[in-house]
Amino acid sequence: PSVGTLTMPEESSEKQVIDVELAKITEKNIEQLRRLNKTIYPVHYNEKFYTDVLASGELSQVAYYSADMLIGAVCCRVEQKNDGMVGVYIMGCGVLAPYRTMGVGTKLLNNLMDVCQQRSNIQELCLHVQVNNQAAKAFYESPQFGFTEVRMEPNYYPNLEVKDAYVLSKKFDRATASK
Predict the structure, then answer these.
(1) 122, 172 contact by CB (below 8 A)
(2) Which of 170, 48, 43, 175 is nearest to 109 (CA)?
(3) CB–CB of 28/57 below 8 Å?
């Protein structure tokens, strides 16, 4: 299908996993990401969001279905720590509604976790999840990903009806052998 044509996966009573291709976010696909984010999220992202996404390199990825239709993305920001280590903040991980529960978010998050595991200076992945989004919280806290709730942050989303958010974190063991 051509760009802009919405091809829906087949309806089925069984959980279906669709094949998607992941790609780095670049200047060439950043406008597609902007459109996707406007569709998925109830918040508007500023220019710094997209600058941070581009600067994060392979940590941020988009998911294409049928080779040319963008259906999901994980957008990250790299945060330097005082000890020289790095934290990665997930600013957004979302999939268009018709493609949820089809393995797209899982593939995006698995890819991100693999990249983080390969980089010895990354010690933590974290994100905010709106308190009413129990499906997202359960997704991140599942045994497959192992995020844990750190705290509840009141009024994190001041312009939304549900303002509070959970902070979830996944730490990577970076213990060094002592001599």
Answers:
(1) yes
(2) 170
(3) no
As a whole number of angstroms, the distance between CA 56 and CA 116 comes to 12
The pTM assigned to this predicted structure is 0.85
First vs last Cα of the chain: how many Å apart? 59
Between CA 131 and CA 75 the distance in angstroms is 20
String of b and e for 83-115 (b: at least 16 CB within 10 Å)?
eeebbbbbbbbbbbeebeebbbbbbbbebbbeb
* Contact (CB, 8 A) for 172 and 123: yes
- Structure-block tokens of residue 104: 């797209």
Write out the catalytic residue numbers.
89, 128
Q: What is the pLDDT along the chain (179 residues), one digit of tens a residue?
A: 333 334 444 444 456 888 899 999 999 999 999 999 999 988 889 999 999 999 999 999 999 998 789 999 999 999 988 777 889 999 999 999 999 999 999 999 999 999 999 998 999 999 999 999 999 999 999 999 999 999 999 999 999 999 999 999 999 876 653 33
